[in-house]
């Protein structure tokens, strides 16, 4: 008999060995889990609890059961704010996704001017939302802003912020101008992971750049698009500082989206229990939309072929 153990392994043993290569121990996730629990789960739990209470922010919360939630579903202002939030989210997605996708694919190339132009384009991402909102508010001032001079030349009413449609579109544009570079970076990273051999084979078959984009680039970026869209939708649903600085929910209530309604209810009328109900409803809506997108796109079943490398 031979003294040494056989080298060959069963197919199941080989799979188990390969699956465990490079995976960090569970202990590495502990700091992240603790951070998430302390700064996400605990505050969310407090907000859910306060949504069943009557609280002015000074005295102790008083449990009122489902009163805030009953009021929520009967409140026409909440319904309008929810509709405006969904409309703003849709406009932001339609505006940002095609531009960010095309710029990301272009930035993944090897053009001579790519590095310089990409660096310039990413500058808005480095600025604070407050600074950007104040900048555009000054530029769009109908009396003293640049829009007063160039508005008539480009067919834009200088008082664009005074109309309901114009104010909502401006908020969507300002948010897109700031955060589009972030989504461009996501698409750039995804495009660089597409194997060159696919494009080489397509070129041999006579496919041009347009056909390569629609038959190779877009299918390969399907999961990247899902990731970007989820982040974009959640971000659009939580717009607050842009609305606060530029429109204050106006004109009238035409840009009073859910986050601003929550702020106004909690910190102007001191009805923090009802504000907590609005916040909880916003979390439920954002989470539901995100899970629905993940479910419909098959993103949840995606598996990395480079896991453990």
UniProtKB/TrEMBL annotation:
GO cellular component terms, A-Z: plasma membrane
Primary site of residence: membrane
Keyword Membrane: yes
Listed InterPro entries: ABC_transporter_permease (IPR051393), MetI-like (IPR000515), MetI-like_sf (IPR035906)
Transmembrane segments: 33-52, 81-108, 115-140, 160-180, 230-252, 272-294
Alphabetical UniProt keywords: Cell membrane, Membrane, Transmembrane, Transmembrane helix, Transport
Protein location: Cell membrane
All copies of domain ABC transmembrane type-1, residue ranges: 82-293
Membrane topology per record: Multi-pass membrane protein
Tree of life domain: Bacteria
GO biological process: transmembrane transport
Pfam families in UniProt: BPD_transp_1
Keyword Thylakoid set for record: no
Family per record: Belongs to the binding-protein-dependent transport system permease family.
Protein name, per record: Sugar ABC transporter permease
Naturally occurring in which organism (per UniProt): Streptomyces halstedii
